[in-house]
Amino acid sequence: MAPRVLISDALSPAAVQIFRDRGIEVDFQPALGKDKDKLAEIIGNYDGLAIRSATKVTPKILENAKRLKVVGRAGIGVDNVDIPAATAKGVIVMNTPFGNSITTAEHAIAMMFALAREIPAADASTQAGKWEKNRFMGVELTAKTLGIIGCGNIGSIVADRAIGLKMKVIAFDPFLSIERARDIGVEKVELDELLARADIITLHTPLTDKTRNVLSAEALARTKKGVRIINCARGGLVDEAALAAALDSGQVAGAAFDVFSTEPATENPLFGHPNVICTPHLGASTTEAQENVALQVAEQMSDYLLRGAISNAVNFPSITAEEAPRLKPFIELAEKLGSFAGQLTDTDIKTVRITYQGAVAELKIKALTSAAVAGLLRPALADVNVVSAPSVAKERGIVVEETTREVAGDYESLVTLTVVSDKLERSISGTVFADGRPRIVDIKGIKVDAEFAASMLYVTNEDRPGFVGRFASLLGDAGINIATFALGRDRQGGDAIALVEVDGVVPAELLAKVQAIPSVKQAKPLVF
Ligand SMILES: NC(=O)C1=CN([C@@H]2O[C@H](COP(=O)(O)OP(=O)(O)OC[C@H]3O[C@@H](n4cnc5c(N)ncnc54)[C@H](O)[C@@H]3O)[C@@H](O)[C@H]2O)C=CC1
Ligand SMILES: O=C(O)C(=O)COP(=O)(O)O
């Protein structure tokens, strides 16, 4: 069945065409994002959801999204998506991190000129027939200091354009290296210095717990008197009520806002103030940017839904379309090795160590590790999935270690998963043969050769004569057919392992009888 995608925001129709060309069914309902009840009602029918900022992907929407595999944000900010909730449900969230950055930077520059020359007010006055030539007196931008808060993709494009305008550019961004600052021609400063020196401040950070209210009442009080403030990033970065007061007092000479703490913004403390310019979240709204982000998100979502390729996901490592088919059998192997170990481990897991040897070490091991951890945790936590596994392990204090080695010994590729708990350390290794099927090749240092099957019985015993006969007749007497039988031992008379594929479920009474065979140490049913 072809995957189905819902577009619930005003994306460029170019996206619809891409989905159709790729053989994906698509419903284009550009106004749906604003109707959260309707969205919750129908989201269960879709594998993909393509959005801009009007659609809020809340836990409630995700709860109803039984088939959803991917949310694609045609744009940058993903603060309208509950990422932890999406991750917990195994939904990949991807954005288009560069498609609208030039356009948004240009909007900030446009806002700066509009503020400097009061263009909106001068336009309204002129068109009202007033010709108030003496009312409007602007400021020149050349040689003024522009303070950029958040100098990432958009911030650095703004810096480049401002330098072209002969402005002095300073930036506050804890993650901006001195070298990068030097390369792009900006002076890296602390926030206090930026506040004290900037004639114009422009914000370009995401909205996070750290950046919320970065321009608070206290910060605004520390700005240079007569500063102008531009926000084309996110509402909530500036305390709007405090800014309105600072405009009234003359501390701030003007403000240009594209984004607001509540959107759609139909009322706001900034509205109506003479030196305030507002646009309705238009930063990304150019034909070019919308085409870019729509095409890119549709391609990315199609690649994921059709080929398992992941790019620009905010909650999963990238996997190219070429890598995806090579990874697939190893993802299955990693998940099953994890599941094997998880089903055998009753105690608290402290550490899981995964070693990748040979050809597999060249693949995207992050994705394999996520799969292994998901398999490991699933016997205890049914809801865990490949996307959520790393964060679930972290929450539970489980240390996940990865090692790669070039040489795999007997196999082209070997994956070894070791679980460490207070009581024991247990390792299991597997590989993928040329047929693409994962196999178990080593358990606790004992060589075996078995495929994973839906229903298995794992028995550890002392290597003594008579075990196999008694075991097989117990199963036969109980009407349980043995499909495959793999045996291994560390040495003659030492520890032995039987890994048996059975048809159907092993009843508890039969398990008890197997456990009662004198040489048996442990018998455990496993399901894959
Ligand atoms: N108005 C609009 O229509 C649009 C708004 N945006 C907004 O612009 C924001 C920035 O976009 P990009 O530049 O592409 O993102 P980016 O991730 O490239 O840059 C963000 C920068 O903020 C910095 N940062 C993070 N925490 C900080 C903190 N506590 N203090 C100072 N700096 C901090 C980061 O180090 C990074 O360099 C987006 O998150 C989005 O919310 C993006 C596109 C359109
Ligand atoms: O890309 C972003 O982060 C934006 O804020 C653009 O929002 P929009 O797609 O225009 O609703």
Automatic annotation (TrEMBL):
- Keyword line: Amino-acid biosynthesis, NAD, Oxidoreductase, Serine biosynthesis
Q: Give the family per the record.
A: Belongs to the D-isomer specific 2-hydroxyacid dehydrogenase family.
What is the protein's known function?
Answer: Catalyzes the reversible oxidation of 3-phospho-D-glycerate to 3-phosphonooxypyruvate, the first step of the phosphorylated L-serine biosynthesis pathway. Also catalyzes the reversible oxidation of 2-hydroxyglutarate to 2-oxoglutarate.
Enzyme Commission number, as recorded: 1.1.1.95
Catalytic activity reads: (2R)-3-phosphoglycerate + NAD(+) = 3-phosphooxypyruvate + NADH + H(+); (R)-2-hydroxyglutarate + NAD(+) = 2-oxoglutarate + NADH + H(+)
The ACT domain covers which part of the protein? 456-528
Q: In which pathway does it act?
A: Amino-acid biosynthesis; L-serine biosynthesis; L-serine from 3-phospho-D-glycerate: step 1/3
Q: Which enzyme class, named as a word?
A: oxidoreductase
Listed GO biological process terms: L-serine biosynthetic process
One GO MF term on file is: phosphoglycerate dehydrogenase activity
- What's the protein here called? D-3-phosphoglycerate dehydrogenase
Per the database entry, which stretches of residues form a coiled coil?
none
